[in-house]
Amino acid sequence: MTNNPFAPLVGQKQAIELLTQAVKQNRVAPAYLFAGPDGVGRSLAARCFVELLFASVVEARLLPSLQQRLRQGNHPDLLWVQPTYQYQGQRFTAAQAAEKKLKRKAPPLIRLEQIREITEFLSRPPLEAPRNVVVLEEAQTMAEPAANALLKTLEEPGQATIVLITPSPESVLPTLVSRCQRIPFYSLDTTSLTQVLTQTGNQAVLQHPALLSLASGSPGSAIASYEQLQTIPPDLLQDLTTAPKSQRHALELAKRIDKDLETEAQLWLVDYLQQSYWQKRHLPGIISQLEKARKYLLVYAQPRLVWECTLLSVYQEFNI
């Protein structure tokens, strides 16, 4: 274990300074809002922060053990909460759902039951650390009942710190934001982006300029895009990026997308096609139509119908 838990975090100097000083001066806030783009190190920063906070009461010889326990997620005073899918009465994170090959039609959510579990977790004092810590990833996925329930916990967190990870303060209820200290995160420059991708063994992503452009300074987004790219049949992607050859072809592609791709992959495909089409032909109508497709997919409209309308419009735009 290094002397600096934040060593792996690249390009977020302000966040590192704010969190380090909070622990150093013993002025850790009851709640934090880690706000910034996806994939730029917010979750990593949360892990580093927890490690720094918990290490303050651990003997030096036990620090490696602490680091391993935190990495494995089995520390009794840390609760890490992720959005979940509901399937046959059970909850699954995105990773668990992918592992079990569950069909996912709707995006994952942080659910009211999970907020109740947080309340129960915080009802007891910490066992080993100076305080209990709860981290909520993708806090913007909370529905209003869950957010209101969390608000009550934030008002009286007890001997605890709660970290909300979100793209922006505007993506969660203002009442939640007002009770948190904001820690800002920013997109990385090209040098830092390359450094992270290289350090994490993802050099292959650097060979795809379109993915790097789509990532907009987010290593995590670049890696996720590369992984999504591998899940889409090459011939399907080729047909889509060159635009449908006929109206019938557009309908066939829509049928295949609906059959072969999960909702998350379809949403990623919208972004990828926007980038691809704009680079080939600057047609605002296509970009607008794809943006409509994203909105319909997010409100659980019938995917095949969404893609039929979208790809027919793409065909017409390309053949005007």
Automatic annotation (TrEMBL):
Keywords: Nucleotidyltransferase, Transferase. This is DNA polymerase III subunit delta. The gene is holB. Pfam families: DNA_pol3_delta2. It is an enzyme of class 2 (transferase). Coiled coil: none annotated. GO terms for molecular function: DNA-directed DNA polymerase activity. The keyword Nucleotidyltransferase applies. Its EC number is 2.7.7.7. The keyword Nucleotidyltransferase applies. The lineage of its organism: Bacteria, Bacillati, Cyanobacteriota, Cyanophyceae, Nostocales. It comes from Trichormus variabilis N2B.
